[in-house]
Amino acid sequence: MSNETLGWLNDNVLVGFTEQRNGAWWSRGGVDSKGRPNHFETAVPLVEVEKRLFNWTPEPASLQYVLLGNKVRHITEKIGVTRSDTGDLLGIFAENYPFTSYRERLLDGLSDILDTNTNDLGIGSAGLLRGGAQAWVQIEEPDTTEGPGGIKFRTSLLAATSLDGSLSNTFKRVLTMVVCDNTLSAALGETGPSYRYKNTANNKLNVMSAREALQIVQQTTDAVSRELATLIDTKLSDDGWSAFLAEHVELDRAKAKAAAGTPKGGNALTRATKKMSELNGLYREDERVAPWTGTVFGALQAVNTWDHWVQGGVREGTQRVERNAERMVTGYYEALDDTTLTAIKRFATV
Q1: Angle at Cα 56 formed by Cα 50 and Cα 58, nearest 5°?
Q2: Dihedrals φ, ψ of 301, to 5°?
Q3: Distance between CA atoms of 287 and 22, rounded to whole angstroms?
Q4: 16, 46 contact by CB (below 8 A)
Q5: Do the beta carbons of residue 149 and residue 49 sit within 8 Å?
């Protein structure tokens, strides 16, 4: 995980539709280091994405030697991928690597899948991470939907890719909870539709396959609202929440380790207890979750919010932004929601 700076985020991430939601927490007054806006009340203008993010191309670089540890080794049949504007090395691949640009992969890809002009994409956000080795474009409906229980959400289509091999070319439907910028799987308990293909010489975007996989005749907001209503209407008692919480943090296992006197047993119990306290605080007191306390949705939202914004393991701030973006693309959050929801339902009131 690279260490993005606040300066990098302000210069390399563009955020749209701020009339519908708050700006990014890292924003320095909504402008980049040159005083140009990086937040927009409506869609991010295509020209800004092209001029400020995708104004360079991946270029080949001849490689003969690499430093592995403290040894220099000769390599063959490999080629480097560099930024045309800075010359920075982003990745190393086989010699037949296709040097397609982010504009081709993401903007043109979205345009082809949706059968629309790139000027009409309705870009909600776009950005670069890892020094330009990863990129994404997210397009959104212009209006926020208010579903049952006052839940506000935005449906969107995310496109992401990389020049370092960390991500396949990925297109996926996502659902964002406006209240806290969490991403939930589109079907809230079912894996959200996605289409991926590797960036190799023999792989190309198959528009028809992508449309079929993404069910691009858009998932209606009515369908999402029905799912949300079911989760809100399914009640979770205090005892049910406590039982789920203990299972989720593996409290009994941590207690057993501590009782056995294993070297790491005490630490395991401390971590489990801390996580339980944090989740309980979100569930009962946090404005992003507490309005739905006592429901399956509230429990799901607590776990999702904790994983996005509380979980340790990364340095607070910029690294968390990058981790969350990668997890959204790779399907981590879909799997988390699915597993969490299955567990919660076992403790719910029928």
Answers
A1: 130
A2: -65, -35
A3: 15
A4: no
A5: no
For residue 58, give the H/E element and its range. Answer: strand 58-62
- Rounded to two decimals, the pTM is 0.77
Query: Which stretches of 64-122 are assigned E, i.e. beta strand?
Result: 65-68, 71-74, 78-83, 89-94
CA separation for the pair 260, 255 (Å, rounded)? 9
Cβ–Cβ < 8 Å for 318, 28: no
Domain boundaries, the chain: 6-55+99-220, 58-94, 227-345
pLDDT of the chain along its 350 residues, tens only?
A: 334 677 888 899 999 998 887 777 777 888 999 999 999 999 999 999 999 999 999 999 988 777 777 888 777 788 999 999 999 999 989 888 999 999 999 999 999 998 888 888 899 999 998 899 999 998 888 888 888 888 888 878 889 899 999 888 989 887 776 655 566 554 433 455 788 888 888 888 988 888 887 775 455 567 778 888 888 999 999 999 999 999 999 888 888 887 877 766 678 888 899 999 999 999 999 988 999 999 999 999 899 889 888 876 554 455 666 677 667 666 677 777 888 888 999 999 86
Q: Tell me the two tokens of residue 180.
A: 């806290």
Q: Strands, DSSP E only, in 101-163?
A: 123-129, 134-140, 145-146, 152-162
